[in-house]
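**User:** Everyone, produce a chain:

**Assistant:**
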Amino acid sequence: MTAVTEIEIVARDRQLQARALHWGLAGALVLACLASLQVGATEVTLSAMLAKLVQGEALSQMERVVLFDIRLPRLAMGVLVGAALAVSGAAMQGLFRNPLADPGIVGVGAGSGLGAILAIVLGALLPAWVIDLVGNQMVPFAAFLGGWGSTILLYRASTRGGRTSVATMLLAGIALGALAGALSGILVYMANDTQLRDLTFWGLGSLAGASWAKVLSAGPLILLAIGAALMLGRGLNGLALGEATAAHIGIDVQRMKSIAILAVAGATGAAVAVSGGIGFIGIVVPHLLRLVSGPDHRTLLFNAALLGAILLILADVIARVVIAPAELPIGIVTAVLGAPVFLWILLKRRGLVDL
């Protein structure tokens, strides 16, 4: 058997494995969606509603509200946010060639947090017409502007002569995060008890405020950003060999960097704006997938979207039922589940991870 034939066999086996993983994750996502629609703070269940429809009975007003106005938009937001965070994490780890990279590197988290805190603490000082125009979307809107603005600032600071330095972006991101944290601390010091409570719950993350308005406002941007990120698979694979090698094999490295950074900013900024701070999805999901299917970004990015949506939906189910009828912030659930998994991955692969 020649070397070429062996390579072809390995490539075909990997394609079959990737296709099987695609279908497996797709099936798991369907099951997770059904679980999300089944449980909640009320006794209304999806199985009971489906049984009534099969028997020709009409749903009650409460059942329609629970299904169409509460659980379905919450499910849609969970799918979008989970996919956005996971794809953004995979893209950043590929771009920085660092297993510890996450979407926060491009300044989205720090900027979004500062924007949200500004809206919560100082929003009442805005003119009445601005408050009436924005309404109850002031915090998500401010968080998105803060995340997007910080990313653009970071991108401009790390780009010289038409080339973006990922090392400069990493260091500048640390400085920007520290500055945003300091400004946030000043605002927190100024906040009253009610505002402090709002800040705490926003920072821990939740899907409890999901609505079709939020889904329709954040959804198109998240889907567009994810679509752009999914096109970067070949480029990120080439970048793993180094920027010079990637350029020699025909990859426009600077263009790929720009698309990756803007896509991550759009996806993560919109996700954080509507859900608050949710950690570990962006850093754990790519690691789990690399253990199963390898580092090929052409399949990793798509699988990350599926697995990120699955994990966030399941975390939301746990958040709703563990202390029902009350609800845990979903950020607590993702941290409790994600931190041990991440530590396990690091310990399992510490001989292979060069930091």
